[in-house]
Specification:
The protein is an alpha/beta fold. The chain has two domains: about 70 residues, lambda repressor-like DNA-binding domains (434 Repressor (Amino-terminal Domain)); about 200 residues, Periplasmic binding protein-like II (D-Maltodextrin-Binding Protein, domain 2, 3-Layer(aba) Sandwich), CATH 3.40.190. Helix content is about 30%, strand content about 20%. The chain has 14 helices and 14 strands. The strands form two sheets. Strands 7, 8, 9, 10, 11, 12, 13 and 14 form an eight-stranded mixed beta sheet that branches. A six-stranded mixed beta sheet has the order 1-6-5-3-4-2, with no helix packed on it. The longest helix has 21 residues.
């Protein structure tokens, strides 16, 4: 029996997808690839859509332009060999889904499970874990990707303007607290760390925290401002005024992980009111982010927790403000800017991102895209 058109169509689409992946992996636009291969941009677009087969001559030219073989681009797809990766966290068991991105010449892998593996739905995987430790079977060539660590759920907004660039870039957002984000940046595992760390004098944010990890070789871009405080559920009632009332009523806490600024806010109030951890049910819980704290409270799994005001507003929860904070994206500033860092700076200065953030209740955009440098060698700002 001869092959049906559906099978042939699937093969064309598969070959077109491989061509697009190879082009994006080399940061080429369709027009640039067409120029290198000596064919038209329309021909490249038709092949990538799967609506046309390349001629033998075009296939040879495209392969040569991309430094690949014709078989690799247009032949039968074989299972990729496992490659070595640097895990952001423990990756799990064989077959587990991961996100992949290249940072500073190393291939980074982030597990796609739980809160880190979903937005509204499941995040697409770039690879599957192999039997050997820290090795992954890629599902295709890694796309140029901006890797950002931080706790603010608005970081997900960066995906759209990055994907609209030519050539497009992906976004790998690793949700974690400020301390962990700075650790990953110092290790060279992310392009940017999102932080909201109060300065030791209590009068500002993010001025000195990066120094402990990066010395003076850093730059911070403003992202947003917000208020952070205690979020309360229905069972808390209307008479709760502070953490002391939470302890007195034995309300269950949804707590953030050590190293996060939300946890620091809670600890400052706990110590000021001389509340023992044992007086706070749920104190030992570790919830991954602002929205997760609010979601746990809204679902009745907890009664109180520290998160930012946008999370409380998103779930219609009562909010007791404690601090006004600035959330910045910190990048390394110890060498030439990478294409990913340049793209990130341009996106942060875009009108599109400003308009999107302005529509989210609780966010401020005054400093969006404004750059600040790390301290100089003599300690001046």
């Amino acid at each position: 029996m001869s092959e049906g058109p559906s099978q042939a169509g699937r093969e064309r689409r598969d070959a077109g997808q491989r061509l697009r992946e190879a082009r994006c992996a080399r940061s080429l636009s369709q027009r640039q690839l067409a120029s290198l291969a000596g064919i038209t941009r329309q021909a490249v677009a038709a092949i990538e859509r799967g609506s046309a087969d390349p001629s033998l001559r075009s296939a040879l030219r495209l392969a040569q332009a991309l430094g690949a073989s014709v078989e690799e681009l247009f032949g039968e797809r074989a299972a990729p060999a496992a490659v070595s990766v640097v895990p952001l966290e423990e990756l799990g068991e064989r077959g587990a889904r991961v996100g992949l991105a290249s940072v500073g010449g190393a291939l980074l892998a982030a597990p796609l499970d739980g809160a880190t593996g979903r937005a509204v739905g499941f995040a697409p995987a770039d690879g599957l874990l192999a039997e050997e430790p820290a090795r992954v079977h890629p599902l295709g060539p890694p796309q140029p990707t901006v890797v950002v660590a931080g706790c603010d759920p608005a970081l997900a907004l960066l995906a759209t303007p990055l994907a609209r660039r030519d050539p497009p870039l992906g976004l790998l957002w690793w949700a974690c607290g400020s301390g962990r984000a700075l650790e990953l940046l110092a290790a060279g595992h992310v392009h940017a760390a999102g932080i909201h760390r109060r300065d030791p004098d209590g009068r500002g944010y993010n001025t000195s925290a990066p120094d402990a990890y990066l010395g003076s070789a850093w730059r911070a871009y403003g992202f947003t401002t917000w208020r952070q405080g205690i979020v309360l559920g229905e069972r808390a009632g209307s008479d709760i005024a502070d953490l002391g009332d939470v302890a007195r009523r034995r309300l269950r806490l949804a707590n953030r992980e050590p190293g996060s600024e939300a946890r620091a806010v809670l600890e400052r109030e706990r110590e000021a009111l001389r509340i023992e951890p044992s007086a706070l049910p749920g104190y030992e819980t570790h919830v991954a982010g602002h929205l997760e704290v609010a979601a746990a409270i809204a679902a009745g799994l907890a009664d109180a927790g520290v998160a930012h005001e946008p999370a409380a507003l998103a779930y219609g929860l009562r909010f007791l403000p404690r601090t006004e904070e600035r959330f910045d994206l910190v990048v390394r500033d110890d060498g030439p800017s990478s294409p990913e860092r340049i793209a990130l700076a341009e996106v942060l200065a875009s009108a599109w991102l400003r308009a999107q953030l302005a529509q989210l209740p609780g966010y401020g955009t005054t400093d969006l895209g404004v750059a600040r440098h790390g301290r100089s060698a003599d300690g001046a700002s």
